[in-house]
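Internal tracking record. Fields below are filled automatically when a chain is submitted to the structure queue. Please do not edit lines marked as system-generated. If the sequence contains nonstandard residues, flag them in the REMARKS field before resubmitting.
Queue: standard
Priority: normal
Entity type: single polypeptide chain
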Amino acid sequence: MIYLLPKKKYLFKIISFILLIIFTICGNYLFNYLKYDNEEIVTIATAQKEIEILRNELKNVKQIKELDHDYQIARVTLRDIHNFYNEIVINVGSNKVNVGDPVVNEQGLIGIISKVDKEQSHVKLLSSAINLSVKANNTYGNLKGSKVDLLDKYSELKVGDIITTSGLTNIPEGLYVGKITKVKMDENNLGQELEVELVDTSDLIYVGVLSSIK
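SYSTEM-GENERATED OUTPUT FOLLOWS
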C-alpha cells in the first residue's frame, strides 16, 4: 500500500514550520500595529505637552503685562547651569533697554541689567548678591543676596513682612523684592539684620524690563 501522507516525524516538522510562518506573520503585523499606535500616542502626548507649555508662557506674559509701569517684554535666551542663580541673558538690546534698568517677573523684581549688546542684554539676578536699596515698613536698608542690613534698631519688623524697593535710586519705589523670614540684631547691636525670601527665579521664561528708553 502506498502512503500519501508523510511519516509522523516529517508531519510534525511540516506542521511546526507552518505554525512558525503563521506566528511570524502575525507577530510582524502586531508589532507594526503597536508601533504605529505608540507613535500616535507619543505624538498626541508631545502635542499636549507643547500646548501646556504655551499656555504657561501666555499666562506668564499676561501677568507681567499687569504691571503699572512702562516695560519691555523679553524672553530668556540663555541661562548657564553653572551660573544659574547669578545671571540670565534676554533677547532685547541697546535699542530698547539700558544698563541699570530693573527686570521683573510676574511676582516682582528679579534683577538689574548689567550689560547691553545690540541684540541682547545680561541681567544680574538679586540672588547674585548685588546691592539694592530697599525698605520694610518705611524702614530703609540695603539688600545684598538674601540679607538686609543697616536698618533702624527700633523698627518693628517681623517674619512675613514685605520688602520692596525704596525709591532712593533710579529703580522705581514699591517693587516687590521678597518677604522677611528672620529678624535679628547685628553683631554691634546698632541695627537689625533680616533674612529674606527673594522672588522665585527658578523657572524664568519671559520677563519685563522697566525701560527708561521711550
